[in-house]
Amino acid sequence: MTVAFEGFTHLIPHAAAHETIRQGIGDLTLIRMTPDVIYDQMIGMGLVRKVVFSYAGNPGVGLLRRLRDAVENAWPRPLEIEEHSHAAMANAYEAGAAGLPMAVFRGYLGAGLKAVNPNIRSVTCPFTGEELAAVPAIRPDVSIIHAQKADKQGNVLIEGIVGVQKEAVLSARAAIVTVEEVVERLDAHPNACVLPHWTLDAIVEVPGGAHPSYAHGYYDRDNAAYLEWDQIAADRDAFKEWMQRHVLDADEAIFATRANRIVGAA
Amino acid sequence: MTGFSPDEMMTVAAARALSSRDVCFVGIGAPSAACNLARLTHAPDITLIYESGTIGTAPQVLPLSIGDGELCDTAVTTVPVPEMFRYWLQGGRITVGFLGAAQLDRFGNINTTVVGDYNAPKVRLPGGGGAPEIASSSQQIFITMKQSKRSFVPKIDFFTSFGHGNGGSHRQDLGITTAGPSLLVTDMAVWRPDPVTKEFTVISLHPGVTLQDMADTVGWTIRYSDAMTETPAPTAEELEVLRALKARTQAAHNREVAS
Prior knowledge:
The complex is a heterodimer.
Chain A: E1 2-5, H1 14-22, E2 28-32, H2 37-44, E3 48-53, E4 57-58, E5 62-63, H3 65-73, E6 80-83, H4 86-97, E7 102-105, H5 113-116, E8 121-124, E9 131-136, E10 142-151, E11 156-158, H6 165-171, E12 174-183, E13 193-195, E14 202-205, H7 223-232, H8 236-248, H9 253-260
Parallel strand pairs in A: 1-2, 1-10, 2-3, 3-6, 10-12, 12-14
Antiparallel strand pairs in A: 4-5, 7-9, 8-9, 10-11, 11-13
Chain B: H1 6-16, E1 23-26, H2 30-40, E2 47-49, E3 54-55, H3 69-73, E4 77-78, H4 81-89, E5 96-99, E6 103-104, E7 110-111, E8 114-117, E9 120-124, H5 131-137, E10 140-144, H6 170-173, E11 181-185, E12 189-193, E13 200-205, H7 211-217, E14 223-230, H8 236-253
Parallel strand pairs in B: 1-2, 1-5, 5-10, 10-11, 13-14
Antiparallel strand pairs in B: 3-4, 6-7, 8-9, 11-12, 12-13
Helix pairs in contact in B: 1-2
């Protein structure tokens, strides 16, 4: 199964990823522009066969140590990678959302990735003759995002850094959204980023569900937790112990507790 | 004011290269400090753009990541990521793309992907993110990073972002119409590409830096400009603003938070 948990630093669906780990859903192909801590965790738990990505780092901190261990040492299992640039993945999501088979853009000029990724090809513009990069559209089986609000009908509002979440939802066969809260009415600005209820398959209210990432207007990014992850993920045993305590032996309620400790700082 | 670190000299020298007219696509790490120092000193009207979608941002503290809420809160507008890459970068609206590197060669080619062979890497690095297209679509590229033999290498292991290739007209030969790397600022020197060969050439050494220091930290035979000077030391104002920015940043990121 191919799954995209999207979020561009902001609104990363941590709670949904932890539930996936608790349910032991495995052999996943994970897609995401910026696989960070949650993909490090799923890879380290052995649930991932392949990852499609464009920047695999712990944002602002450094490398993803569990992903590195999988790529460099095949621990806990070998990891297949399909690597792109941000421009390629953003365009590929857009193509998926638009129902097109591929994305065309001016990219990868002189870059080495096209030599190691057979999904990076080129097309010639029929009007100008310019050679342009082409990548296949992204079409996940399931896309999962986190957002601020849903109304009673199930319409979802995303505010702040909106990343590629709308495209991730519209390109997927099924879409799940976790939200900070369900409200009577969205009262959204006319140009706001709203996903109508009929584009979604499930909405789950999980207050704090993005922690240690952040939800604009609700709580700040927990930068210290990202710095701390670098230490936890550096050691296989420390990693397993942390996952047992904070994920396998926990439930989604833990997120509200954590986020409450940084509420008000936003 | 006297006494400054090589890191401070690097940030100050890089900041000086920017002006209020620039529309700058800011990369993670050292570039972010330089761009914000420029904004807080001589280039108050510079437009800073981060790939998370924030346009015209003016953060009071340096973001830990390219998607911090502070960037959105202080931006003129925040756009979706696909729009950022399609309209703003690919559309040719960026005057300076400001990048760092894990490995760099004398022609400004950048590697942030792997050390060693791609399929069996010694070290798997984060990868390119926005950099492959920032390098080809921005009107010019500035690079800032610390010198070391590990990072200033004769031959990079992977072409994450294309600089001047093998030099000369290699860029144009590939159909790239933008200028490419036009400035390199390190903790020891300021470099510019030779107009013909495109090899980075030292145009000024930072105060106190010796030719031996240079040879010890660069993995190729360095070219020096005939007109080489000494980089002017940071002014009292530059140091004061930079240190205040770093102190605010430190305080913000070390706040006690949940575990």
